[in-house]
Amino acid sequence: MEVKKQVEILKIKGGVNEYLKDDVIVEHPFTIFINDKELVTILCTPRDLKELTVGFLFSENYIDDINEIKAMDIGEGCKTINVIVKERTQTLRDKYRGRRTITSGCGKNTSFYNIVDSKTSMKITKRLPISPSSVVQLMGEFNKLSVLFKETGGVHSCGLGRVDGILFYAEDIGRHNALDKVLGSGHLSGLSFEDTLVLSTGRISSEMLIKAAKRKIPLIISRSAPTSLAVELAKELGISLIGFARGNKMNIYNNFSEY
Amino acid sequence: MEVKKQVEILKIKGGVNEYLKDDVIVEHPFTIFINDKELVTILCTPRDLKELTVGFLFSENYIDDINEIKAMDIGEGCKTINVIVKERTQTLRDKYRGRRTITSGCGKNTSFYNIVDSKTSMKITKRLPISPSSVVQLMGEFNKLSVLFKETGGVHSCGLGRVDGILFYAEDIGRHNALDKVLGSGHLSGLSFEDTLVLSTGRISSEMLIKAAKRKIPLIISRSAPTSLAVELAKELGISLIGFARGNKMNIYNNFSEY
Asked: What is the ipTM of this complex?
């Protein structure tokens, strides 16, 4: 499916008007069904939709093992996906109730605060030390992959990798979707997340930290700012957090002794 | 309440390590109750919380007249607000059910797609022509107000104004929250929105269009990119959409004849 669309625009620059064609990023409503029951509609960039679905279902605790998924069928026009999962607990069935819509900026979660509350049980003990020069190199590699952003200016990017290189890369109008996509790729490929790291162009808020913590990912690097809650959670969960990673600069928010 | 927090960071630049104090933006969980029943938790920047509440309740169709609100009481530590509203329809009470958490990027909405579906009834017919030089001037004024972004790099800004100047301004970790804040200010001051415009630093996705359309706001200007769905909705709803408004440049997406 097309992820960008050409539209006619009037470009004005210093008093000069020019009509031309320009690319805008596609915002696509995508509805996830579980065992034929509607779960949620996500506004997203229509690429890597199976990966997005898997990442989302893990992030939101609908599944916790990739083998719970028996099949995934994408509907006509990529507007829907039906995920056939093994029947599980009442908890899961309870979640089916109601109908929610998730917009582009969101990794929405009814159980979000339950997770924050149980953060002591999510503590990550395995470390992933990284040298500043490796951060610079990874972010350089990461920025080169950002094609859709250069074309449309309308997406965030996420990468999932190891210290020596990027394994998966995704772009989406929503930074949470982009993260769910690369995490979904990891789940689908049977990746062990314990020695991986997340790269992001977007601001790091608490939900991004929690998505990483659920997979025991020990390191997050972003070219943007973290929030106070992300910094606090990083310290409590033992996730190393690096922000403002641009060129040969970066800000380290915890685990200082590793640098 | 403090909207930024000083944390110790290790700044690395070209191989030189420096420990210093830096400001990060506060991410604050804020729970809205209606008539003592929990409605939603929003992750936000803890400033203009009454305005955020009012804007959110209008955006999500919990109220459609400011006079429905009899009182608003902010709890200790600004963690909660209890909004006393006049008893209304079953529709409203139905919405009380369940508990949702809304993260920083979101103006989340169970009824979102109902609104998209009913867009023909929301068509805006009153125009608000603006000259390119007024756009440049407004965005210049708007950018000067962005103090928290300069300090933390972690917020989006929104303005609500008229062609000749900005009336309300807000910053928040979430671009939807920032918009709800200025819209809430408008509602609280009894503003008629029909000759107002929205200014934003953030990308314009469909939810931003819909929030504006609900108030009959005829013009949105952003320094960032719109999505395809935002462009389509702008055309269908009759809202003028200007993106990439930076310096003396801008991209116009519809209503070309006005420029």
From this structure: 0.88
Which tokens is A138 given?
């990874």
Q: Name the residues of A annotated as catalytic.
A: 106
In single-letter form, the type of residue at position B256 comes to: F
A154 in reach of chain B (CB within 8 A)? yes
User: Which residues neighbour B139 within 8 Å (Cβ) at sequence distance 6 or greater?
Assistant: B199, B221, B223, B245, B246
Q: Which pLDDT belongs to residue B86?
A: 86
* B28-118: CATH, from 3.30.200.20, 2.40.160.20, 2.40.50.100, 3.10.20.10: 3.10.20.10
CB A230 within 8 A of CB B43: no
Q: Which of A103, B143, B258 is nearest to B239 (CA)?
A: B258
Starting at the edge strand found earlier in the chain, the sheet holding A240-246 runs: A165-172, A156-162, A197-200, A219-222, A240-246, A249-252, B4-13, B16-25
Contact by Cβ (8 Å): B3, B26: yes
Q: Is CATH 3.10.20.10 the classification given to domain A28-119?
A: yes
Q: Do B105 and A102 touch (CB under 8 A)?
A: no
pLDDT digits (tens, 9 = 90+) for B48-107: 999 999 999 999 888 989 999 999 999 999 999 999 998 765 455 455 544 444 444 443
Q: What is the pLDDT of residue A110?
A: 36
Measure B241 CA to nearest chain A CA, in Å: 10
| Torsion of the alpha carbons at A108, B225, B253 and B107, rounded to the nearest 10 | 20
Q: How far is B189 from chain A (nearest CA, A)?
A: 29
Class of domain B132-258: alpha beta
Residue A147 has pLDDT above 50, yes or no: yes
Residues of A in contact with B29 (CB under 8 A): 113, 229
Residue span(s) of chain B under CATH 3.40.140.10 come to: 132-258
Look at residue A119 in the predicted model and tell me its pLDDT: 57
Q: What is the DSSP string of A190-217?
A: T--GGG-EEEESS-B-HHHHHHHHHTT-
Task: Give ∠ CA A143-A146-A147 in degrees, rounded to 5.
Answer: 145
DSSP B165: E
Which residue ranges does chain A devote to CATH 3.10.20.10?
A: 28-119
- Write down the pTM of the prediction: 0.90
Indicate yes or no: CB of B108 within 8 angstroms of CB of A99.
no
With a cut of 80, say whether residue B112 has pLDDT above it: no
pLDDT at A249: 97
